Amino acid sequence: MKFFVALLLSLLLISTPTIARSVNGSSLQKVDKRNSDPRHFGFECGSRKYKLSTCIDVVKDACEAHSNVRKPKNIVLNYTMAKHPMEFIRAQEFGYPNNTMIVELPLSLFEILNLNYVAFSPMDCKILGVVSKNEDWFYTTSFKACRHTSWPFNWLEK
């Protein structure tokens, strides 16, 4: 009787990894894993990617700076005044309203010149898109729209 109990326990221990492996390798788990990884959402301008949360923060600060500039009795200067919004004169080329404003996106560590801007509506501080400015040798300026994108977290962010 002890022999059969020992044999049954040893068979159970040997077969447990095989059963567990077949459960983990089932096709149902592969379907669930297909699009479940966490992702960033934002805009891509060339090789530079901007998170949507960064764009929202920049627009919020620009709206505060824009409202402070419009109120002449409020002369308190803060860090948002440094990045005040500018009128976007080429808004109609992108299908944006005439009163669209743009503000610079933050520089990365190794960037010297920033040519990427968030376009937003100053009335409701709604993001309309991100545009990239191109200047050539003859100092003619053109803008192009950056595209919406998503990308996975890197190994430091997980």
Query: Could you spell the SSE succession in H and E letters?
Result: HHEEHEEEEEE
Biggest sheet layout: 5 strands, antiparallel
Radius of gyration from the alpha-carbon trace, in angstroms: 27 Å
Low-confidence stretches: 26-32, 74-82
**Tertiary shape:** elongated
Using the 3D structure, state the CATH architecture of the largest domain: Roll
Give the count of helical stretches. Answer: 3
Helix/strand/pairing category: alpha+beta
Strand content: 25-35%
CATH topology of the largest domain: Nuclear Transport Factor 2, Chain: A
Euclidean distance between termini CA atoms: 52 Å
- Looking across the biggest beta sheet, what order are the strands in? 3-4-5-6-7
- Count up the domains: 2
> CATH superfamily of the largest domain, called what?
Microbial ribonucleases
CATH class of the largest domain: Alpha Beta
Output mean pLDDT.
Answer: 77
Percentage of residues in helical conformation: 25-40%
Tell me the total number of β-strands: 8
Task: Report what the structure shows.
This protein is of the alpha+beta class and 158 residues long. It folds into two domains: 2-33; 39-152, Roll (Nuclear Transport Factor 2, Chain: A). 31% of the residues lie in helices and 28% in strands. The protein is built from three helices and eight strands, in the order ααββαββββββ. The chain has helices at residues 2-24, 27-33, 52-70; strands at residues 39-45, 48-51, 86-87, 101-104, 116-121, 126-135, 141-145, 147-152. It has a five-stranded antiparallel sheet, with helices on one face. A three-stranded antiparallel sheet has the order 2-1-8. The chain is elongated. Residues 26-32 and 74-82 have low confidence and may be disordered. Residues 1-20 form the signal peptide. This is BgTH12-01009. It comes from Blumeria graminis f. sp. triticale. Keywords: Signal.
